[in-house]
Design goal:
The structure holds two protein chains of two kinds.
Chain A lengths: L7 E14 L2 E14 L3 E5 L6 H9 L6 E6 L2 E2 L7 E4 L11 H5 L1 H5 L4 H15 L14 H14 L4 E5 L7 H18 L2 E6 L2 H7 L2 E5 L6 E6 L11 H28 L1
Parallel strand pairs in A: 3-8, 3-9, 6-7, 7-8
Antiparallel strand pairs in A: 1-2, 1-4, 4-5, 9-10
Chain B lengths: L1 H40 L18 H13 L9 H32 L1 H14 L8 H35 L3 H9 L4 H36 L8 H10 L4 H33 L3
Helix pairs in contact in B: 2-9, 3-4, 3-5, 3-7, 3-8, 5-7, 6-7, 7-8, 7-9, 8-9
Classes of the chains: A alpha/beta, B mainly alpha.
C-alpha cells in the first residue's frame, strides 16, 4: 500500500430520509451520495430546507436515516458517539458549566483523570484563544467566544470528523469573518476532517476545499465544485469571485426550482 | 458582623422607596384592623354605637400582647411554650418536605423525560392533585395516628408543587443541549445527571418554594384534631375551639405567616447560592 494514500473519512451512498409530519410523508433526502477524504474541508450548501442539516445530523447519529449507507472510516453509523464531534449554530453550551468544564464534558464522560482532562482543556483553550476565560460561564461570553468554546469542546474528544452546522450563522458579519479565519487556523493546526453546513456562498468559497451544492427537496447532490484558490483567500480576488459566481448561479437555479414547487403546492 | 450591617445599610439606602412602600401597606392594614375592631367594640372613635361581635376581632394591641405571652408562658390547653409549638410544626414541615423532595424530584424527572412514564403517571397525578389535603385529614389521623398523620397531610401539600414543577422543568430541557451531550458521548445516565438534572434545578427550586408555602397552609388542617408534641396549627385550633382565646388564635396565625416567610426565604437563599455556584447569575 502506498503510504501517502488518502483514506476516505465519510462515505455516504444512496442516503434517503423521509419525515412524517401530519401524516404526510416528506422526502427530505433521496439518493444523496458523498465522499469526504481524511483532512478535507467540505462545505454543504443548498437552498433552505434542502436537508443539509439533516445530512449532518444523520452522520452525527442524532437522526436515523431511512435508507442508504453512511459510514465513517468504514463503520456504519447507528448512534451518536464521541468519534464524531459536532458544533451547533446555537452554540449549545451548558450554561451551568464554566468554559473549562464545558470543554471537559466529553472527557468527564470518558472518566479521564482530572489532571489529564486539565492538560487537554488547557491545550485547547490555547488553541482557540480563550486564555484567561477558563472559569467564565457562557453568559459572560460574546457569540464568537461562545463558538470558540463549542469548537474546543468538540475537539476535546479528538473526533475523526468535525461536523459544523452553520456554526457562525448567528454571529455578526465582522465576527463571522474573523471566526472563519480562526477556523482555518485551527483546521490546519489539528488536521481534522471538517464537514461544514452553511447557506452563505461567500463563507463556503472562503473555507472549503470542495463545495457540495445540494438540490431543493428532496435533497441530492447537484454538483461538487472544487475550490482551487490558494489560501489565505482574498474575497476580492478574481479567482475567488469566479468560483463564487459559479456556485451562486448553481444555487440560484435550485432556489428558483424550490420556489416554483412551493408556488405549485399553493 | 460589621460587614453584615454595612451590607444591610447599603441595601436600605438603595431600596428605601420600596421598603417604605412595603411598610406602609402593613401600617395601612393594621390601622384598618384597629378601626374595625374599635367599631365592633363601640369604642373611640365609634363610642356612640352599641357593640357587636367584638370578641372575635380583638385589637391589634391585644394580639401583640397575646403573641408575647405565648412565648413568655405556657398556653392553657397543652401547657406548652410557643417555641415548643414552633419546633413541633417545623419538624413536621421538615420531615414532610424531605419525603416530598426525595419522591417528587426523581418521579418528576422520570415523568418529564420519558413519555411512557409520563403517560403512566399522569392520570394518577391529575386525579389526586385537586383533592385538598384537608380531605385526607380524618382518615390519615385515624389510620396513621398523631405522629405520622399530620406529617402525611403536610407531605401531600408539598409533594405536588415540587412534582409538577420538576415535570415541567424536565420537559423544557433545551433539546440542542441533549444533542450536544450525545455527540460528546453521553449515554442515558450521563444525560440525566449532567444535562437534565442541572437544567431542571431552577424549576425544582421554584417547586420547593411553592411547596413550602402550601405546606404551611396545610399545617392547621394537619394538626387540627391533635398532634404529638403540639404544633402551631394545633395551638390555633385549640385556642379558638377549646378555650375561645381569639387574641391567642390570631397570634398563632401570625406565627404561621412569619414561619412561612422564613422557610421560603431560606429556600430563596439556597436558590441564590445554587445559581451563583452554577454560574447562572
Amino acid at each position: 500500500m502506498d503510504g501517502n494514500e488518502v483514506t476516505t473519512c465519510i462515505n455516504i451512498q444512496g442516503l434517503s430520509k423521509v419525515f412524517t409530519r401530519d401524516r404526510l410523508a416528506i422526502r427530505a433526502l433521496e439518493g444523496f451520495d458523498l465522499e469526504v477524504l481524511d483532512g478535507e474541508f467540505v462545505c454543504l450548501l443548498g437552498p433552505s430546507g434542502c436537508g443539509k442539516t439533516t445530512v449532518l445530523r444523520i452522520i452525527a447519529g442524532l437522526e436515523l436515516k431511512s435508507g442508504g449507507v453512511v459510514q465513517v472510516h468504514g463503520r456504519e453509523i447507528c448512534d451518536a458517539g464521541s468519534d464524531r464531534g459536532m458544533v451547533f449554530q446555537e452554540f449549545a453550551l451548558f450554561p451551568w458549566r464554566t468554559v473549562k468544564s464545558n470543554i471537559e464534558f466529553g472527557l468527564e464522560i470518558k472518566s479521564l483523570a482530572p489532571e489529564r482532562r486539565g492538560e487537554i482543556s488547557k491545550r485547547l483553550i490555547e488553541l482557540v484563544g480563550l486564555q484567561g476565560f477558563e472559569s467564565a460561564h457562557p453568559n459572560e461570553l460574546s457569540g464568537g467566544m461562545k463558538q470558540r468554546v463549542g469548537i474546543a469542546r468538540a475537539l476535546a474528544n479528538d473526533p475523526e470528523v468535525l461536523l459544523m452546522d452553520e456554526p457562525f450563522g448567528s454571529l455578526d458579519a465582522q465576527t463571522r469573518n474573523m471566526m472563519q479565519k480562526e477556523l482555518l487556523r485551527i483546521w490546519s493546526a489539528t488536521g481534522k476532517t471538517i464537514l461544514f453546513v452553511t447557506h452563505s456562498v461567500d463563507e463556503a468559497v472562503f473555507l472549503a476545499d470542495r463545495i457540495v451544492v445540494m438540490t431543493a427537496r428532496p435533497g441530492r447532490v447537484r454538483e461538487v465544485i472544487g475550490v482551487d484558490v490558494p489560501r489565505p483567500r482574498e474575497r476580492t480576488s478574481r479567482e475567488f469571485i469566479a468560483v463564487r459566481g459559479k456556485v451562486l448561479s448553481e444555487l440560484d437555479e435550485e432556489f428558483e426550482k424550490a420556489r416554483a414547487k412551493e408556488l405549485a403546492r399553493k | 458582623m460589621s460587614q453584615f450591617t454595612q451590607a444591610l445599610w447599603k441595601f436600605v439606602r438603595l431600596n428605601w422607596p420600596r421598603i417604605a412602600l412595603g411598610c406602609s401597606s402593613v401600617v395601612l392594614f393594621v390601622t384598618a384592623w384597629w378601626l374595625y375592631s374599635a367599631w365592633l367594640h363601640a369604642e373611640w372613635p365609634f363610642s356612640g354605637r352599641t357593640s357587636g361581635a367584638a370578641e372575635y376581632v380583638p385589637y391589634p394591641r391585644q394580639v401583640l400582647e397575646a403573641l408575647i405571652d405565648s412565648f413568655a408562658g405556657r398556653d392553657p390547653v397543652s401547657h406548652l411554650y410557643m417555641t415548643s409549638h414552633i419546633y413541633a410544626s417545623l419538624k413536621r414541615i421538615s420531615v414532610g418536605f424531605a419525603l416530598a423532595f426525595v419522591l417528587a424530584v426523581p418521579a418528576g424527572l422520570l415523568m418529564g423525560r420519558s413519555r411512557n412514564a409520563g403517560a403512566f403517571g399522569k392520570p394518577i397525578v391529575e386525579l389526586f392533585r385537586p383533592i385538598p389535603p384537608l380531605a385526607w385529614v380524618p382518615i390519615f389521623l385515624i389510620a396513621l395516628k398523631f405522629f405520622w398523620g399530620p406529617i402525611a397531610i403536610v407531605f401531600l401539600g408539598i409533594f405536588f408543587p415540587i412534582l409538577l414543577n420538576t415535570i415541567f422543568g424536565a420537559k423544557s430541557v433545551d433539546p440542542v443541549l441533549v444533542d450536544a451531550a450525545r455527540t460528546l458521548g453521553a449515554r442515558r445516565r450521563d444525560l440525566f445527571l449532567k444535562v437534565v438534572l442541572p437544567f431542571t434545578t431552577p424549576y425544582i427550586m421554584t417547586g420547593i418554594k411553592l411547596g413550602l408555602g402550601v405546606g404551611w397552609m396545610c399545617i392547621v388542617a394537619a394538626e387540627m384534631l391533635g398532634a404529638v408534641g403540639g404544633g402551631v396549627g394545633y395551638y390555633i385550633y385549640s385556642m379558638a375551639y377549646t378555650v375561645g382565646l381569639y387574641d391567642r388564635m390570631y397570634a398563632g396565625m401570625i406565627v404561621i405567616g412569619i414561619l412561612s416567610v422564613l422557610t421560603t426565604g431560606i429556600a430563596g437563599l439556597v436558590e441564590q447560592r445554587l445559581y451563583k455556584w452554577m454560574g447562572m447569575k
